[in-house]
User: Fold this.
Amino acid sequence: MRSHLTHLACARCAATYPVDALLNLCPACRSPLLARYDLAAARDALPRAALADRVGSLWRYAELLPVIDAAWRLTLGEGWTPLLATPRLGAAIGLPNLLVKDEGLNPTGSFKARGLVMAVSRAGELGAKAVALPSAGNAGAALAAYAARAGLAAHVYVPRDVPPLIALETRMLGADVTLIDGLITDCAAHVKAGVAEGRWFDCSTLAEPYRVEGKKTMGYELAEQLGWTLPDVIVYPTGGGTGLIGMWKAFDEMEALGWIDGRRPRMVSVQSAGCAPIVRAWEAGADHAAPWVGAATVAPGLRVPSAIGDFLILDAVRASGGCAIAVEDDAILEWLPRIGHAEGIFTAPESAATVVAAAELAARGWIKPDERVLLFFTGNGLKYEYLLADGAGAAVTHNGVTAIDAVGNDTAAVVMARGDER
Ligand SMILES: *Cc1c(COP(=O)(O)O)cnc(C)c1O
Assistant:
């Protein structure tokens, strides 16, 4: 299983670079670099049927991934997550053909494992001894896990109000965790300072070329799990947008490989009304998203005021005939227990945002009832206990709490605090 990686290309100025050195942004124009492959050679070497009996992880696509030396393919079992039909949830929102890709089953409980396994594998392969990133939480935990696996030092900068269990998890996985008074953008300044001092390699979203390569495997998996077809609509909770950008790249690659035809899903970017820079830019018809001031939401992964890949997210959404939509925190909190009751999935608030968005788009007629709609459930719900209940799973009441008996079941009443009281 030889990687067909050939070079890096700037997503904006198209300058190209060799793959034998660690690079962050394009040295010429400071935009994201993307990995390019010899897809013609891969097409000859790898018919899609050859995948059938491969390992149940994202490494089943090793030829289309950037790690050259197989010994550097770190793994904790990431990827190849379940694609579930969710008819009860679908019936509740008027979409009988609803599907869920449950990314909460990844190592460290979120789809950040896909991106970070690739970034850390490549960083190690190219000689880095220490890695760092700013994070809303889950990226830091995933970085810590794979750095531990590789024997690298990991440094993580997170907002002080990061979900407490994620900070604990990240420390338990051996990373040095620094809590910052501010948002992920403020954390990024600390990581940059360390880069300037030569302390570590920066693994920030899209500021290095390989996280998006890990995330693109969601697109490969979807196609393979759906018998080499794609859904009509994909609904993706968007912070930095790496997964959306990665899947869009994967669709082009798979078409070049002869694995799928030219039909594409409509890509829906979901954000929280408390931090919706992409939605605002999409509505304004802009190519770039201005930074969001005063970002606040119960979905930590969506609290990204400014995304370096904004133009790539907006391009993909537009090219697909998709849309961008913001949802309210109250609706996110209301749907979390409903999802659990309907389908047995205890998921993250970001995932619930996709349900709210799909329900709204179905109600507007933007999604037709017979369409096949895929929601990305991006994380496991267990990390968000502070939002939901006390440690024993009982309802809690404290300042500003909203009690929501989402399913009309007194014994299972769920009480939730608002995010700004965390
Ligand atoms: C990071 C994160 C997101 C947002 O993902 P991006 O690829 O940065 O847009 C969504 N959900 C969860 C649980 C996350 O951790």
User: Anything to note?
Assistant: The mean pLDDT is 92. The domain at 83-107+211-403 is CATH 3.40.50.1100 (Rossmann fold). The first strand starts at residue 5 and ends at 10. Residues 110, 112, 138, 205, 237-243, 301, 348, 350, 378-379 surround pyridoxal-5'-phosphate (CB under 6 Å).
